[in-house]
Specification:
alpha+beta, six-stranded antiparallel beta barrel, six-stranded antiparallel beta sheet, about 50% helix
């Protein structure tokens, strides 16, 4: 790709170009469908053929450049207006043209405040003087003051070395103390675990003893519940019998009153018998109440015994549960102590490595200081002279760049034309960002600057070439003003023209169902034979990775950190996880996982003939995607597993 040496912005847009692009898109779609159909048929034939053969295709991991480009086709046109701005924002100090004036190429149109640019030139001149002085020092050697500074540098390096040694000794002592502390903590937690395990054994043995009556708390609870029911029944019966006694006593009192009131012998005999029967009933009830009291007392005693057994078993279970909690806590403490010990060892190892690294750096620093002083006090070497002269050269380049910036405070006409408008007066601020153009077929002007500000000067009646090409949605988002491009014209197949992106349209264009976004390119130079209306192709680099390991894109499965490739090692195919980087037009960058010169396996392509004509293995090409057209030409290839 040619270097971009100048950028004259312009824009071309035309309905004719869009229609031609749409026709090309439709034709590409038809051809792509035909190729896909043929490919599927071939794949099915290969899959169905029992005689298909597949050869292992490989590629080598190499180091180089991975480029990702997008391409499109457009039509050349000549712009009719230039909107001119300064390269940077500034305050106008002079306006040298007026509307309607005819200007020639290079004529001064206006000036902005050059104070900052002049200061930058002065700073660059001072840097150049400093570099030249350093070159002179390199040629003449050190002064007495510089030798004194060298002695101080040596003392500082020696002190740094002493401090590093002291720090290393302190780190080692701290590591020893940490080791003893960790061991003590771990021993204590293990001892506590042994104590708690012993207590658990005691509590378990007690539980076994206490379980002689009832096997567990549930059984004791069931017995207590049954005892409570018995006691309740006893108390209910005792209460009923007591009530019966009260009733019998009341009946006896009534019968005695009747006896006392009796006057006849028959009544006296009858009521005497009734009183006697009442007394017999009371005697029987008294016996029954005595029996009820005894039974209630027995059942209450059993209830108390069972409740005591239940409480004891519950206490045993709680004690064992507490023992288990302590044991779990002890195990957790041991794990924490072990983890803390490991963390402490890791931290101590890191501190030791850091202290050793600091000591090594201090030793290296002292040696470097001594070597540097010896080098400075030695006669200048060819490399030192070359470095000093290189610094002078860099300062000269910076000065040239600053002077160029200073010259850009003056806006000159890039071509002959007529001033259509002048916007701005002395003392006002004008926007920078470069210039823009409007073509004869464009619907609106476009700019390569960051905003749509009013141009300082507008020129008309120009003669300049530009290109407008329609890009697919996925490609248009990768483009931005200023990107370098290469233009080739079908009528001039042996020439490549440098160009750059001027603008990317914010609205889409749709034709025959194909959505594109128009991108305007400015040709940085012209060529004999270029004419408006010629079909031109443009390629734009949208991604670049330099000095990276890369493999053919077909060898990579997945993307990013989830990618894998198949590597041929000792005659066997091994799947290796890799981290994939930029995916270029034909290869993909590999960030990690592979080494240079390794052999990767490419997907195989098998072709079989049903007539027994033999099988062959095809090769694939990795293009920009799709079939036909400038949008990413490629071949229809069907990869094996």
């Amino acid at each position: 790709m040619n270097a971009i040496t100048s950028r004259l912005p312009s824009q071309l847009a035309g309905e004719g170009a869009r229609l031609r692009l749409a026709r090309v898109g439709v034709l590409n779609g038809v051809l792509g469908a035909a190729l896909v159909g043929a490919g599927v048929a071939s794949y099915l034939a290969v899959s169905a053929s029992p005689t298909a053969k597949a050869a292992v295709r490989t590629a080598t991991v190499t180091r180089g450049v991975v480029l990702s480009t997008v391409s499109a086709t457009g039509t050349l046109a000549a712009p009719t207006q230039l909107s001119l701005n300064f390269q940077s924002t500034g305050v106008l100090t002079s306006v040298n043209v007026r509307a309607g004036e005819h200007v020639h190429w290079g004529q001064v149109l206006g000036r902005i405040d050059a104070t900052a640019a002049q200061q930058a030139v002065q700073q660059a001149e001072a840097s150049l003087a400093s570099a030249e002085a350093q070159l002179e020092t390199t040629l003449t050697g050190e002064t007495a003051q510089q030798r004194a500074q060298d002695r101080i540098s040596v003392q500082q390096a020696q002190q740094s070395l002493a401090n590093a040694k002291s720090s290393l000794a302190a780190t080692k002592a701290s590591i020893a103390l940490d080791g003893r502390s960790s061991a003590s903590s771990l021993a204590q937690t293990r001892q506590q675990l042994r104590v708690d395990l012993g207590q658990e054994q005691v509590d378990v043995a007690k539980q076994k003893t206490d379980a002689a009556t009832y096997a567990n708390v549930a059984a004791a609870a069931a017995a207590v519940a049954a005892d409570k029911l018995k006691v309740a029944a006893d108390e209910a019966k005792q209460q009923a019998d007591t009530q019966a006694q009260y009733d019998a006593q009341h009946q006896q009192s009534l019968d005695r009153q009747a006896l006392q009131q009796s006057t006849t012998a028959a009544d006296i005999a009858r009521w005497t018998t009734a009183v006697s029967n009442d007394q017999n009933a009371l005697d029987n009830l008294q016996k029954t109440l005595s029996s009820d009291g005894y039974q209630t007392s027995q059942d209450q005693s059993q209830l108390s015994a069972d409740e005591s057994a239940q409480s004891t078993l519950q206490s045993d279970a709680s004690a064992i549960k507490a023992d288990e909690a302590k044991i779990a806590q002890d195990n957790n403490s041991i794990a924490n102590a072990t983890s803390n010990a490991a963390s402490t060892r890791l931290r101590d190892a890191q501190n030791l490595a850091s202290a050793q690294q600091t000591l090594a750096s201090a030793q290296l620093g002292l040696r470097s200081t001594l070597a540097g002083i010896a080098t400075k006090q030695a006669p200048p070497t060819p490399s030192a002279l070359a470095s000093a002269r290189s610094s002078v050269l860099q300062a000269q380049i910076s000065l040239a760049s600053a002077r160029k910036t200073l010259t850009q405070t003056v806006l000159r006409a890039p071509a002959a034309g007529v001033v259509a408008a002048v916007n701005g007066t002395v003392g006002t601020s004008v926007a920078g960002g470069g210039s823009s153009s409007t073509s004869a077929s464009a619907a609106s002007s476009s700019s390569n600057s960051s905003g749509g500000s009013t141009p300082f000067v507008s020129l008309t009646n120009l003669s300049q070439m530009e290109l407008v090409a329609g890009f697919a949605e996925t490609d248009a988002v990768k483009l931005q003003p200023g990107q370098a491009a290469t233009v080739t014209v079908d009528a001039l197949p042996n020439q490549e023209l440098a160009a750059h992106v001027l603008t990317v349209a914010q609205t889409s264009t749709s034709s025959s169902g194909v959505v594109t976004y128009n991108v305007t390119f400015a040709l940085d130079r012209s060529a004999p034979g270029l004419k408006p209306g010629m079909t031109a192709n443009v390629d734009v680099v949208t991604g670049e990775a330099d000095n990276v390991l890369h493999v053919p894109t077909a060898a990579v499965r997945g993307s990013g950190s989830n990618a894998t490739v198949t590597v041929l090692r000792k005659g066997k195919q091994v799947t290796v996880p890799v981290v994939a980087g930029l995916q270029g037009d034909s290869s993909t960058a590999i960030v990690s996982g592979l080494a240079a010169n390794e052999t990767v396996v490419l997907p195989s392509v098998s072709v079989a003939s049903s007539s027994g004509a033999g099988a062959g293995t095809g090769s694939s090409t990795s293009g920009g995607g799709g079939f036909g057209g400038r949008g990413g030409a490629g071949k229809a290839v069907f990869f094996g597993p």
